[in-house]
Amino acid sequence: MWNKKAVFIEIKEYLMIAICSIPYGLVVNQVLVPHAIIGGGLTGLCEILYFATDSALPIWLSSLVLNVVLIVIAIIVLGWKTCVRTLWGILCLTVWLKLFPISDHAQISDPFMAIVLAGIFNGAGLGLIYAYNGNTGGTDIIAMIVNKYKHMPMGRALFMVDMVIIGSAWFLPQVTRVEQILFGLCYVFIEAQAVDWVMGRGRQSVQFFIFSKKYKEIADAIMTRTGRGVTFLEAKGAYTQQESRVIVLLTRKSESTAIFRIVMEIDPSAFISETQTRGVFGLGFEPIKERT
Fold first, then answer.
1. All domains in the chain, ordered by first residue
2. pTM (2 d.p.)
């Protein structure tokens, strides 16, 4: 039986993957290629093929062919369920690379400013794609396969592949300055930071440990005024040997000020520990999703 809510969420995620892959096509065709800057990943390799063949091999075509080869390997190694969204991301990226023309001249004349803006723009798009359980194929597939068999972190695997691709650009006649290689490295770094920022921005949560003799009053006030649930942990002071309870609370970072205010109003002598969490999933926070 169809679950309407689940179907709606699925359609929304596929739609967002399609929309958020638009920056990728724009950045490659309007920024990187006009400046002869090789970005990382499979698209960077496609840029190298484009320049090496004097524009005879379109980037969108080489990207599609190489991605098809990789997705076939991934289906065999990882299973088709893991690759459904990857295939959709590949199709979307191919469409945008085809639709957006390659500029004869750079839209932004300063190459450094161009790669900064491109890295932020494209990284934000990729971050949203990852947040919606998608990816655009390419070296992501290689990293997933390497991670399965070698247990190497995906970030390290991607970094190593990017370094090889960007370094290979030095042998292209269009790359006449070492700065172009450095710009490529800077672009990959900025893009990665933007991806992390976007993915982490929506998941900024904090964990509180609140030590107070008035734990019951504080807990009731937090639940009443913020709607957040709390948990009691049984505790015993090592020095005083007195038994007490510690309040444990997970909440959004934006709500932390309200928590501090509540505690200070009830017990100014309370002891509070606040730590940032990488991600909190479940009721009231991020939905628990399985990558398909």
1. 4-201 (no CATH), 205-277 (3.30.70.120)
2. 0.68
